[in-house]
């Protein structure tokens, strides 16, 4: 896959853009006043594989979250700030790794300059996060609504305010709850600038629908080589966002790990393949081996249909088969099928 080459930025030791691996982001959703709860969730997200973590900084008191989280984890931390430029300055002073702020929303040029200068001095990139629900009135009127062109124009407007002060360590996001508008907006931006792009569908929905929209929106852009870092937004535990993001990257071969294939079952299936496939997926969730594992419902067609898989199982009528590249290597009792598969994978 040819990726669009963007500027390379450093966010607390994690590179974004310039061909760096696509990083996975998420955001804490514990109330900002609860320091202990935020630290606990940050640790959970780090364990789950989150690579860049955002925290809302709604007031001065919440700036204390920054040292508390940074002390407890090693994930680069992003401060999410709306309107109050002093919170950006305080966050930089508190050791934040990146700021998410829209310069057009913080008032006078002096304030924008103060934020740009502080971020430059400390090597802190800024993400401009444009959202279909909060576009500037003039831009909405010009484009007749939150279109892709409107999203892109708004992002470029905010970026120009930082460029005025020679600040270019910028990441852009142009999120829309409409997948088609989001895809088009990012494509437009990738044609007119070389800033790294943070991909996401905003207000994507509950776990199932949010994952579908994100897989289509984020996935189609990544497939076209557009995008440098991603966040799957779900109305769910943010740990689920990490699993979803990893699955999207794995499905596109942008992250190594197990690729699982399993058949849809049919009238020839004589084992509880749905439960077996779920168990295999769960037990391989942390496996980093770059292999394809097949879980097939019948011995007659399974090994042949999944001959591309490095290893697989097929079952039925009390006996299970283990096969490699379509060739049967072992027969095992059906109740030992998953354990035997795991032993084989261990030995690979
Ligand atoms: S592998 Fe066997 S059980 Fe599964 S769909 Fe194909 S024929 Fe049916």
From TrEMBL:
GO terms for molecular function: 4 iron, 4 sulfur cluster binding; 4-hydroxy-3-methylbut-2-en-1-yl diphosphate synthase activity (ferredoxin); 4-hydroxy-3-methylbut-2-enyl-diphosphate synthase activity (flavodoxin); iron ion binding. Residues 259-346 form the IspG C-terminal domain. It catalyses: (2E)-4-hydroxy-3-methylbut-2-enyl diphosphate + oxidized [flavodoxin] + H2O + 2 H(+) = 2-C-methyl-D-erythritol 2,4-cyclic diphosphate + reduced [flavodoxin]. Signal peptide: none annotated. Binds 1 [4Fe-4S] cluster. It comes from the Bacteria. GO terms for biological process: isopentenyl diphosphate biosynthetic process, methylerythritol 4-phosphate pathway; terpenoid biosynthetic process. InterPro entries: Dihydropteroate_synth-like_sf (IPR011005), IspG_bac (IPR016425), IspG_bac-typ (IPR004588), IspG_C (IPR058579), IspG_TIM (IPR058578), NO2/SO3_Rdtase_4Fe4S_sf (IPR045854). SUPFAM superfamilies: Dihydropteroate synthetase-like, Nitrite and sulphite reductase 4Fe-4S domain-like. Pathway: Isoprenoid biosynthesis; isopentenyl diphosphate biosynthesis via DXP pathway; isopentenyl diphosphate from 1-deoxy-D-xylulose 5-phosphate: step 5/6. Its cofactor is [4Fe-4S] cluster. Converts 2C-methyl-D-erythritol 2,4-cyclodiphosphate (ME-2,4cPP) into 1-hydroxy-2-methyl-2-(E)-butenyl 4-diphosphate. This is 4-hydroxy-3-methylbut-2-en-1-yl diphosphate synthase (flavodoxin). The gene is ispG.
């Amino acid at each position: 896959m040819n990726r669009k080459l963007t500027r390379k930025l450093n966010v607390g030791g994690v590179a974004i853009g310039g061909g760096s691996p696509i990083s996975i982001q998420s955001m804490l959703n514990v109330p900002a006043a609860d320091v202990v709860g935020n630290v606990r969730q940050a640790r959970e997200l780090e364990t789950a594989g989150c690579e860049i973590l955002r925290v809302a900084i709604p007031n001065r008191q919440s700036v204390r979250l920054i040292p508390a989280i940074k002390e407890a984890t090693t994930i680069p931390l992003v401060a999410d700030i709306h309107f109050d430029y002093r919170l950006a300055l305080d966050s930089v002073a508190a050791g934040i790794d990146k700021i998410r702020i829209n310069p057009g929303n913080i008032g006078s040029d002096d304030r924008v300059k103060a934020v740009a200068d502080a971020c430059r001095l400390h090597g802190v990139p800024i993400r401009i996060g444009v959202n279909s629900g909060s576009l500037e009135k003039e831009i909405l009127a010009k484009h007749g609504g939150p279109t892709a062109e409107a999203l892109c124009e708004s992002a470029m407007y905010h970026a120009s305010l930082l460029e005025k002060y020679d600040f270019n360590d910028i990441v852009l996001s142009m999120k829309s709850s409409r997948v088609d508008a989001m895809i088009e907006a990012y494509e437009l931006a990738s044609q007119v600038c070389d800033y790294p792009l943070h991909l996401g569908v905003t207000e994507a929905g509950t776990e199932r629908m949010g994952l579908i929209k994100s897989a289509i929106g984020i996935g189609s852009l990544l497939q076209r080589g557009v995008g440098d870092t991603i966040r799957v937004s779900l109305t769910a535990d943010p740990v689920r966002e990490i699993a979803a993001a990893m699955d999207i990257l794995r499905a596109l071969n942008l992250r190594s790990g197990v690729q699982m294939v399993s058949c849809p079952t049919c009238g020839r299936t004589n084992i509880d393949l749905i439960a077996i496939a779920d168990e295999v997926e769960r037990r391989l969730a942390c496996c980093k081996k770059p292999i394809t594992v097949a879980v097939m419902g019948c011995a007659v067609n399974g090994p042949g249909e999944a001959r591309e898989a490095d290893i697989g199982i097929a079952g039925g009528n009390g006996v299970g088969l283990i096969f490699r590249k379509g060739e049967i290597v072992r027969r095992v009792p059906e109740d030992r099928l998953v354990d035997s598969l795991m032993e084989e994978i261990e030995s690979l």
